[in-house]
Amino acid sequence: MARIALVHDVAGVAETQAEILRSAGHQVDHLRLPDFGADWGWVAKALTLPLRLLLYLPVVLRLRRGRYDVIHIHWVPRGIVGLLAGKPFLIQAHGSDLHVELHAPGVFRLNRRVLREASRIFYVTPNLERYLHYFGDKAMYLPNPIHIRALAAAPEAPRHVRRIVVFMRLDPVKGVDRVFPAVRRLAAEGIEVTALAWGPLLPEFTVRYGDVVHFVEPVPHEEIGRFLQQFDLVVGQMGQGALGLSELEALGAGRPLVSGIDRNMYPGDKPPVVFAGTPDELVEQLGRLKQDAKRLANLSHEGREWVRRNHGFQRHLQLLEMAYFGRGPGLARVA
């Protein structure tokens, strides 16, 4: 069995990977980096880089001194600890660390160097592949792991659509402009709309839609399943075409999902997701589903089984071990 260092975390993914790898007998150290300045703009990040490097130093020294077979780092900018450790490392990209951070002035050279030096680059949603075309020979799609049982042991399928949740960050990149123009019509049809009080557009949206949308604080990761069970249906992101972690958790919890999915990104096993790309389509689709108990039950069951096949713990372990130690199509040994 191998000794593995998982560095940093994003949305609990590294913590879940540590659980999966330990259950397979591997020795795993989950090394967390301080979040100082994580939400700052690129200018502040560039100016404070020396201070942040000082805060990272304990982890860098541990990576240097530890006899790790695998060093797996989450979030592209945090790959700087791999460079400083002087050891082979893998990097896992999660989204905005590619489509935002990769080209951020002041730090883009550092981010590109991280990608050049990494033994392998994992990306968690298929839409991120286009940002890695210069590194395609070592880029690998690694779908986020989803703990099905933790989300709901035996979810009850909804029989109608009365309560929905817009389960995304209030950010233009998520396609919120294709959702919120529909909320007044949905409310007029007797559908109660809840959304997360999270993201840069929150102040504007609470003013514009606060009379018809109930904004709630995001819940801790371990409570997501219980939170989602309150709702009959989940509306996911509309702007990326892919299913992010929030959408996968909704499916894993047995909640029917409506999103702006691009099915071309999933050429094999198609996700059982209802497509809506505009406010009008969203209203139309929810109108069709509103009293269709049979279809809602099918979506609930099929979504959960699709997540189990494609994002379950056993599948994730196979992909990790293949990337860490094995050889397969397009895979180089990195351990």
Explain briefly what this protein structure is.
The protein has 335 residues and is α/β, with parallel strands linked by helices. It has 14 helices and 12 strands.
Largest beta sheet: strand ordering: 2-1-3-4-5-6
Structure summary, number of beta strands = 12
Low-confidence residue ranges: 328-335
**Which term fits the overall shape?**
globular
Strand composition percent: 5-15%
Structural key phrases:
335 residues; alpha/beta; six-stranded parallel beta sheet; 38% helix
Verbal overview:
This protein is an alpha/beta fold and 335 residues long. Helix content is 38%, strand content 14%. It contains 14 helices and twelve strands. It has helices spanning 13-23, 42-47, 49-65, 80-85, 96-99, 108-117, 148-151, 183-188, 202-209, 224-228, 245-252, 279-289, 293-311, 313-325; strands at residues 3-7, 27-31, 70-74, 90-93, 120-123, 139-141, 163-166, 192-196, 213-216, 233-235, 257-259, 274-275. The strands form two sheets. It has a six-stranded parallel β-sheet. The protein has a six-stranded parallel β-sheet with strand order 9-8-7-10-11-12, sandwiched between helices. The chain starts with a strand and ends in a 10-residue tail after the last helix. Mean pLDDT is 91; it is low at 328-335.
